Amino acid sequence: MLEVKEISKSFGKKNALHAVSITAQSGQIFGLLGPNGAGKTTLIRIINTIIRQDSGEVLWNGKPIRLKNLNEIGYLPEERGLYRSMQVMDHLIFLGRMRGLTKYDAAQQSKKWLEEFEIAHWSKNKIENLSKGMSQKVQFIGAMLHDPSLVILDEPLSGFDPLNVQLVIDKIDAFKKEGKTILLSTHNMRSVDQICDRIALIYQSEKLVEDGVWNLRDRFKQDEFTIRFKGNMVALANGLWTGFELIQKEDLDENRFLVRVRKRGENSINELMTSLMNHIQIEAIEEYFPDMQEVFVQLIEEKDAV
Amino acid sequence: MQYSWIIAMREFAERLRSTSFLWMLFIGPMVLLMLIFLLLRISDEGKKSVKAIVTDPAYFLVNRQMIKGESNISYDIRDVSFEHTEFLDNPNLASYDVWIEINRKVLTNKVVKVFYREEIGVEAKIAMQLEVERRLEEAFVEDKYLDVTLEEFRNIKQPLNFDYIDIQDPGKKTSRIEGFVGLGFGAVIVLFILLFGLAVVRSTAKDKSNRIVEIMLASTSSRALMLGKIIGIGFAALVQFLTWVILVGVGLYIMRETLYPDLLDPSNWAQSSEEVKVQLAQQLSNQTQNKLLDVLYNQIDYTIMLSNFVILFVLGYLFYGAFFSFIGAMSNSESDGQQFTLPLIGLLFFSLGVGYLTVLKPENEWVDIFAWVPFTSPVVQLVRIGQGYYEGHSSISYTISLLVLLVSTGVFLYLASKLYQANILNFGVRTKSFFTKKDKMHNAVIDLGTNTFNLAIGRWIDNSLSISYSTKEGVALGMDGINDGIITIEAIQRAISCLKRFKLLCDKHKVSRIHAIGTSAIRDARNSEEFCAEIFNQTGIKVEVIDGMREAELIFKGIACTYSFPKLSLIMDIGGGSTEFIQVEGGKSTKSMSLNIGVSRIFQKFQFSDPLNQEDIRKIEDFLEENCTDSFYSLNADVLVGASGSFETFYELVNRKKFPDGLKTQEVGLSLFLEELDNIIASTQAERDVNSFIIPIRKKMAPVAAVKTRWVIKKLGIKEIIISPCSLKEGLFSELR
User: Fold this and answer.
1) A28-69 pLDDT, tens per residue?
2) Chain B residues with CB inside 8 Å of A86's CB?
3) Which among A25, A30, A2, A12 has a CA at the least distance from the CA of A202?
4) B258 Cβ partners below 8 Å, 6+ apart?
5) pLDDT, tens only, B686-714
6) From CA B483, how far away is CA A219, in angstroms rounded?
7) Residues near B537 by Cβ (< 8 Å), separated by ≥ 6?
8) Cβ contact (<8 Å) for A81 and B567?
């Protein structure tokens, strides 16, 4: 378990983090969100002992994190780099050894990961000859081949094509099942929706909120429902009465639509369904929970309003 | 230390793989050998025809016939002795080039002193040496100084040592040239520290620029990283040095064997026994061919020189390496790093200068001081060792000097690691502020737009941009020429006149540097080069003409200085020549484009009525439809962020007040904004002329800008309007931070 307690950090007069605390459990994917310059990277660097906090502490399994704990951490920074003149395999062995593996173990692990990511045939190639996506894979492997129990990923999906995005997401999911603690910083809200269990939002150096993803989505829901139906929009309009208003409409095909409606007053979903059933053919209906992008924006707007 | 070692081995391997390292491994020794060869040839130009006086009070050689052979040496043997001042001053002896002093001591000390007025050639020396030695052998045996036969004597004799002494400077003998050899070794230390110190700077800066440094620091401490780099590169330096030593050694051996092959040809020594031939061959090959060869092959104690070289190089390299790695940590690129190494290069050359002083004045009190100063001690100490200084002085001074160097190296490595840690993750900030104090200096940025020229003077204070002065002037650079791709002569004159005023303002505000950026009208003009040259000639201002994408990038950076883009946004910057659109998602620019749909282009393309009628509006919208590419229609945003210029005018018209001072963005209600756009479109020129919220240059074209903005809002389904006072100028300032 990773516990960050009351961490503060300033650079000169600029306050980068102010009393930020988070707790990420084992077997959990913890999203660290926030706009650019909020302090996410500073926090990640403090956890990695790259920079030292002014106050507060970082605990890993209950004990203050130290240099010797670095071999338990797998870190993929947002701005990545590799030694371009090195061969892929040599580079991975080097990174593995820097994380405490023996040369033999590093070579074995590298081989296994390269095969898993289907780039084993590139192992003798120089990094400078790899495509960007391929380099990203090597970087991801380099961060993980020592089998860390705390995985810190800063924008892990950037630079990957959709197929490889899924590959990385699957790997992150597999880490979770293995009971690793995963800290993920990203701007990609879709990935937050898809894979995070819990998030903390850092804004202007402070933590605005820390909660489960579904708790937050539930907190910001606005009694809206999405309905997929067959029929036409006039029939829908006839079916809706003043208790619901149409928010959004999407044409799926000629006579199939996906709409979002918002409840007014005390009407229930059952009353809405009863009313609509006589006018349109309902294919699916569910309560609409805002995605994390909307939650993110609303949280920041709330803060700005204050 | 384990990780330092892994890092060191990686650095070492990288150096070994580098082509330049491999080339230097072999080219370096070749060049060195060529230089030595050249020096040998030059120093071999000594006197070849020699007139020698031999003083022989012991009567060893008197009455003996000296055989001249093929050599050009004449001997005058006398049974006298004199002081060397007499040889120097007596006019009767002035015709002799050489004085060979032989006395009874030669039987025991085997030394023959040869005083010369000017350097003697190698061939002459050898002939003279062989002849004197041969005659003495005969004398020793035939005159029964020894009770043995000549053959027996030749079997047991030790070769004589010929001590060549400059009569002008009999006391110093070879100390100065040996000092120069020490200086040569010192120069090699300086060369290696410089070459490999720069490699440390490059390697550190490269790690920073390609960002791998963050991965490295997540694996180990910054100190271990720094030490690993210094040690790994130092290993490469040692390998290179040892290779040089071996190759130069082999080269010198080959040179000795081939340069004067006749020296070692025993057939020249017919009267000598085989043993003597061997002895003479050894002696001659080792000694006295010329002064440099003598020093090179005989007088340098390579064991002492090389072992001390390695000790002083390692300590000197680690000492300077601490500084080099600190510079690397502060640099953002390899080239950035190199310029900051100048002070260190200066210090290294200074240490060479002090080394030279040590050669000339070994007892100078400053030399004693510099022998202890860690910046200079490696070179000074090597010179002293070369001079044999410690044979006559206590070596405690040397030990203390090594200790001072060792302790300073430790202290500076520790300090450098602290600074290294503080700077290694500062990408793009520290170097500039630390060295040039750019954050304290005023910069001026001039945006040479198609309609207006904007000047902003400001500086960064504590990471916040402070604009101390800004102004704009309507220049109408694109008037009458923009659609023909030309800047008219009248427009050039207006531009120069405006820039001269801006220049005066910059001088008044003590601006350290003016950055002038040319956009659409200039980049599209056929005569842009002439225009920029004319501006430079008349004002001294150098205009950088940028392309549309760079313009969009700077606009984004400018607005991002004060706005964090919480929602999916589209920046729009209405220019006279072009209009830039930048889509911003999650705070990052995801799409950008620069389209040639500037208001000045549209205004000059059509004839409009006053106020605009429906036909005019349709013409403008049709033009926009035609000139907006498919990628424009793929833009997706909820918020339109208007960048300065026309948008500030729109804000003032909506709110009936001046746009607030400072760089903060302002929000405007969409419906009010659209309503105001309609008002502007419907306004007459006369109405706009009396409206104080519209600046003069926009009074003509404001309706066109309004039609265009309204069209974009409708086309892209914009829901919110934000107006930023920032744009290209602030973007450029952000890069000067």
Assistant:
1) 999 998 877 788 889 999 999 888 889 999 999 999 988 888
2) 10, 14
3) A30
4) none
5) 888 888 888 887 888 899 999 999 999 99
6) 56
7) none
8) no
What is the CB neighbour count within 10 angstroms for residue A200?
Answer: 24
Q: Judging by beta carbons within 10 Å of its beta carbon (0-12, 13-18, 19+), is residue B469 exposed, middle or buried?
A: middle
Q: 3-class DSSP state for residue A146?
A: coil
CA-nearest residue to B464 within chain A is A14
CA nearest to A299 within chain B? B566
Q: How many interface pairs between A and B have CB atoms less than 8 angstroms apart?
A: 86
pLDDT at position A60 is 92
Overall CATH class of domain B553-735: alpha beta
Looking from the CA of A237 toward its CB, the CA atoms found within 13 Å total 5
User: Chain A interface, mutation test: which of B17, B209, B212, B417, most A Cβ atoms within 10 Å?
Assistant: B212
Which of the listed CATH numbers 3.40.50.720, 3.40.50.2300, 3.30.420.40, 3.40.50.300 matches domain B438-546?
Answer: 3.30.420.40
φ/ψ region of B667 (left if φ > 0, alpha if ψ in -120 to 50, else beta) reads beta
- Treating both helix axes as pointing N-terminal to C-terminal, what angle do B19-43 and B2-17 enclose, rounded to 10 degrees? 70
The 3-class SS string of B318-384 reads HHHHHHHHHHHHHCCCHHHHHHCCHHHHHHHHHHHHHHHHHHHCCCCHHHHHHCCCCCCHHHHHHHH
> Which of the listed CATH numbers 3.30.870.10, 3.40.190.10, 3.40.50.410, 3.30.200.20 matches domain B50-157?
3.40.190.10
Mean of pLDDT over chain B: 81
Report the 10 Å Cβ neighbour count for A134. Answer: 17
**Are B443 and B459 within 8 A, CB to CB?**
yes
Contact status, residue B5 vs residue B228, Cβ threshold 8 Å: yes
The whole-angstrom separation of Cα B140 and Cα A272 is 136
How many CB atoms within 10 Å of residue B408? 18
CA proximity to A189, closest of A159, A160, A213: A213
State how far residue B443 is from chain A, nearest Cα, in angstroms.
23
Closest CA to B587 of A19, A293, A216: A293
Q: Do B214 and A13 touch (CB under 8 A)?
A: no
> Which residues neighbour B426 within 8 Å (Cβ) at sequence distance 6 or greater?
B330
Per-residue pLDDT of B93-152, as tens digits, reads 888 989 998 888 887 777 888 888 877 766 677 778 878 888 888 787 776 666 666 666
Q: How far is B226 from chain A (nearest CA, A)?
A: 14
What pLDDT, in 10s, does the model give residues B517-547?
998 888 888 888 888 888 887 888 888 888 8
Numbered residues of chain A with Cβ closer than 8 Å to any chain B Cβ: 12-14, 35-37, 45, 48-51, 67, 70, 73, 75, 77, 79-86, 94-95, 97-99, 139, 142-143, 187-189, 296-297, 300-301
By Cβ distance, the residue of B207, B221, B565 closest to A67 is B221
A139 and A186 both lie in a single domain:
yes
For residue B574, what is the enclosing H or E element? strand B569-574
If you average pLDDT over residues B556-570, what whole number do you get? 88
